[in-house]
Amino acid sequence: MQHLVTLHKNKNLGDYRDTWLTSAVTASLAQRRQQVLGGTYRLFYDEPVEVASASGVWVTDVAGTRLLDAYNNVPVIGHSDPEVAAAVQAELLRANSHTRYLDREVVDYAERLLARFPAHLDRVAFTCSGSEANDLALQLATHLTGRRGIIVTEHAYHGTTAAVRAVSPSLVTLAGVADYVVTVPIPRDGSDAERAQEFAAAVDRAVAELCRRGLEPAAILVDTALTSDGIFAPAAFVSEGIRRAQASGALFIADEVQAGFCRTGQWWGFEHLDVAPDLVTLGKPMGNGLPIAAVVGPAASFDSFGAEYRYFNTFAGTAAPIAAARVVLDRLGANDTPVRVNALGERLRSGFAQAATDAGVGALVRGAGLMVGVDFAVGGVSPSRAAEYVRELVNELRRREVLVSHTGAHGEALKIRPPLVIDEAEIDELIGRFAAALLALPRLAGDAA
């Protein structure tokens, strides 16, 4: 096991110190993990993080080092929130049964959640994960339309069940998607109008291809921040393409698992679009780390499906995770969160852009709210070379006690999604460490340079 001890200069503090980034104990734990957990699991970073505790936007490792978490969007109101913990404990000590019994807290939460949606989206079905939510949404779409064809973006991720894995090219590659799936590329260049036209034309071709295969489209399933495609938020340019898919008879499923709950500076990512969803899926941040997700849609859609099929999930919508979700909904609603997130996101994006300019590194900073992508495949740099650089940058930031990851078809973009409780001082700290990391790496140049 490598990287047991690393000596480095922390340029933010200006001093040298021995930093036990991955201790011998952590290395031993990693080896033990490898011997008991299945090969499907992955560890982030060359120097894995062994978490001792976490609070707010900070993760503390077993050596006592505090790491600025700019990646984890699940603890949307902060790690280890005491109000969430107290609410969950109270329900576990009261009753945590299933949805075949009446529970006032579950119904109260459903009413308050639906109040955040357009009037036509007036029913909710709970699941335990975003994967399950997208799976159920696909079941609804194929039942309601009597069709099988699905349109997704070219590097989409929608989950890990068999059904949603088959529509997730980021997992199975373009060649591995199901034969009833057609993918559409995300335009990278041009004006908003040009990109909208290009995306709409790609959707037209996808509809035609499905029909050629004898599979009319049942749904166009879109992550409304285009997170796995490289973060192209706000994604208003996809609106016309989605409308054309709807005109062909497909339902628009807005995947809000990553974009929802104020992440993009609106309650829902689809609010940036000029088209109404037929179904909406929720997940990740909904319970601040508790397993709860959902599908939201019209009563008629659920009634039609429910008349023919049952959907029951033993652990979905039980009182304990609902209690966590209630705290999240209350906190986001009480703090004027969208306005705050937009201001912080603008501060972060402008700071990152200036840091890249100062370092002489070509980068395109995209995003909405605190969903931010930094794309390095610009200025003659190929996506594969940019991906190599991003991998180095992610690990350099890890050494500088910042947690981030990558996204995009090649991994060419940095992915930034901090808990929404991050404040201005922490945003500035993140910008400073990003700037130092850029200066520490060899300068990124075009492939021909």
From TrEMBL:
It comes from the Bacteria. One of its GO terms (molecular function) is molybdenum ion binding. It holds the Pfam family Aminotran_3. Gene3D superfamilies: Aspartate Aminotransferase, domain 1 (3.90.1150.10), Type I PLP-dependent aspartate aminotransferase-like (Major domain) (3.40.640.10). The keyword Transferase applies. Belongs to the class-III pyridoxal-phosphate-dependent aminotransferase family. This is Aminotransferase class III-fold pyridoxal phosphate-dependent enzyme. It comes from Gulosibacter macacae.
